[in-house]
Amino acid sequence: MPPTNAEATPGTPTGTTDRAVPTATAPATGNPYRRLFALPGARAFTAGNLIARLPSGMFGVSAVVMIAGARGSYALAGAVTATGLAATAVTAPWIARLVDRHGQARIAVPATVCAVLGSLALVLCVHYDAPDWTLFAAYAATATTPNTGGMSRARWAHLLKGDPEALHTANSFEQAADELCYMLGPVLAAFLCGTVFPEAGTLTGAALLLTGILLFAAQRSTEPPPRPLSSRAKAPLRAPGMPAQLAVCLAMGAVFGAMEVVTVAFADAQGHRSVAGVALGLQAAGSCVAGLVFGLLRPAGPADRRLRWCVAAMTVLMTLPLLAAALTGSLLLLSGALLVAGTATAPTMVTNMTLVQQRTPEGRLNEGMTLAVTGLLGGIGCGSAAGGWAVEHLSPTAAYGVPVTAAAVALLISLVRRTG
Question: Is residue 270 part of a domain?
Answer without folding.
Answer: yes
